[in-house]
Design brief:
Radius of gyration: 17 Å
Number of strands: 3
Low-confidence stretches: none
Order of helices and strands: HHEHHEEHHHH
Mean pLDDT: 86
Strand order of the largest sheet: 1-3-2
Strand content: 5-15%
Distance between the termini: 54 Å
Helix content: 40-55%
Number of helices: 8
Shape: elongated
Number of domains: 1
Largest sheet: 3 strands, antiparallel
């Protein structure tokens, strides 16, 4: 870590405890039970700190299906880390995929599982989106959503 910080004027970045808090906020929590399927998640505060945005901005992204938020049984909002890259950019075409999935079922936990569970080929839909295969992923999302909405 020291090697990576040699080019930075750490004093200019502010108090060390503030810098440390920002660095820790960028680390997702992988300790919860859902970690095996959903993977690591950010808390609302952790995501706000990491991305440098307000709670209201995150809520707007969630409302418009640009960020996937999950609510735990005890009412805590968490955000799967697979939807972000290392620099905080969102998963490409997530909005279109979540819109398609929401036509079949309004359950973000199902959507997160669908996006981050490997299929028979060993790949997840999230990995396919990262590779640019958004048309195929959106088609699959529409097909699966239609199947979910059938009685």
């Amino acid at each position: 870590m020291a090697e990576r910080l040699t080019d930075y004027d750490l004093i200019a970045l502010g108090p060390l405890d503030v810098l440390a808090d920002r660095m820790v906020a960028a680390l997702p929590d992988a300790g919860a039970a859902w970690g095996a399927v959903i993977g690591p998640v950010y808390t609302s505060k952790g995501l706000q700190d990491w991305l440098g945005v307000s709670r209201q901005a995150i809520s707007q992204h969630v409302l418009h299906h640009r960020i996937l938020r999950l609510t735990t049984a005890d009412g805590v909002s968490v955000f799967p880390s697979f939807q972000f890259d290392a620099s905080g950019d969102r998963l490409p075409y997530l909005h279109e995929v979540l819109d398609a999935l929401s036509e079949g079922i309004n359950d973000p936990w199902t959507w997160a599982t669908w996006l981050n569970t490997a299929d028979a080929s060993g790949e997840t839909q999230a990995e396919r989106l990262r590779r640019g295969e958004w048309v195929a992923v959106c088609e699959q999302a529409r097909d699966d959503a239609a199947a979910w909405s059938r009685p």
